[in-house]
Amino acid sequence: MTPLLQVSDVSKFYGHRIGCKDVSFNLYPGEVMGIVGESGSGKSTLLNCLAGHLTPDTGAVQFDTRTDGLRDTVTMSEPERRMLSRTDWAFVHQHACDGLRMNVSAGGNVGERLMAVNARHYGDIRDKATDWLGRVEISADRIDDRPTAFSGGMQQRLQIARNLVTGPRLVFMDEPTGGLDVSVQARLLDLLRGLVREMNLSAIIVTHDLAVVRLLADRLMVMKDGHVVETGLTDQVLDDPQHAYTQLLVSSVLQV
Amino acid sequence: MNDYNFAYLDEQTKRMIRRAILKGLAIPGYQVPFASREMPMPYGWGTGGVQVSAAVLTPDDTFKVIDQGADDTTNAVSIRRFFEKTAGVSVTEATADATVIQTRHRIPEEPLREDQILVYQVPIPEPLRFLEPSEIETRKMHSLEEYGLMHVKLYEDISQHGAIATAYAYPVKVEGRYVMDPSPIPKFDNPKLEMDAIQLFGAGREQRIYAIPPHTQVVSLDFDDHPFEPTKADHACDICGAEDSYLDELIVDDQGGRMFMCSDTDYCNGRRAAGNAGTQSIPMEATE
Fold first, then answer.
1. What is the ipTM of this complex?
2. Which of B52, B70, B94, B271 is least surrounded, with the fewest CB atoms within 10 Å of its CB?
3. Hey, are the CB atoms on A143 and B156 less than 8 Å from each other?
4. CA distance B191 to B109
5. The whole model's pTM is what?
């Protein structure tokens, strides 16, 4: 089976400081991978390198494209990379305001990716937007409201709808539940889990919340100071941590 | 003779602007940056258009200025007098007699010829500006031809108003490549953008020049199920009776009385001189 994403020896430096160093892994279709670690451990740097927002200093990020098979997204041309990022890739930001157009209605936000790939029929775009709002549990009568009139949880769900409308195969998520209260978090996770299974999505989720990866991720990668210190199946890593830092991380979770 | 260099600007500046114009003509719809100069008028009064006109004028040219279709408003009169004084060119109000026409907000009703140049004053040249505030990002979108966002604006129009409500500065795609803001002309004028004359657009404050060469394809953006429609007031001109020209609506009293008249004053006068009359027109001789 070809991996969907093949990451080999990706390193990113900020001057002399390490962003992330020598990260390699394979992600297979339908697989959800969690990246956990404390603040400043290089999780977001790595995610941005993978998603093409940052250029890694060394290494290759090979993506299994629909037409040409495995292609290195680091060396491919910018138009190709941007085309990927609005068709086969999706990026869910921690703050919805980074991922949404706040002065455009919910329907327009969902429709933007469709129009970016040359959808030119208003009725179709609107039907699709309505459908997707329904799938993320936003009622259809809010379609013409702007995201500024939405709650934090709704904004996050709208962002997910906007990203998934073109049927991507790989979703990057940067702390998708950060800043939401626990009950809203639980519903969002439930929704995400359903969508990931239903659409057979592959996803890379960066988070510091171990409960999120416990629910969503098949595999886990633990990062510390820019290095990957432990990888494995989620249950294995969380229930039987081997590295001293992972042990500390797992034992730091507050029990209610 | 006067103390100004011909058409106010120095020769080096005019060469710089001409280079930008040539580049703009070579890449239809592409916004060429240029070193816009301070002009003796405020930004927003047509500093971009004036610089372009200064660069293309020759002593043999006949110059006409239109402001919202009219030749006799403050902006039009002051710019016309500016070039009368600094370039000594002859001026006219007749569209057919002019070789260089500077305009704000309108394209003349009378079709232009190959030996004419139409210069537009442009306030904001970037059609994507109100959706994407970053200039770096909009330039990238132009270079990679990522114009989905332009349709988001039209989508918003339909979702709010049931139809594309953008009535002026209606975005167009030039020669299948660049999306362009045609300056704030009414969308009624959009079909006229495919014409025989050279069209030059100057934005002074934003320091951009762009152009449409003659006979260039200009397509107004739309949706398959909401096609582009040029609109005007559903009325005939009350002065000359024209049914095919763009109309201004005038409130004439406090009782809600109103009348419609051609926004293109030269076109209206020409029709009246040819003997046409509208429902409220006074006979030609009585006005003199």
1. 0.86
2. B94
3. no
4. 12
5. 0.87
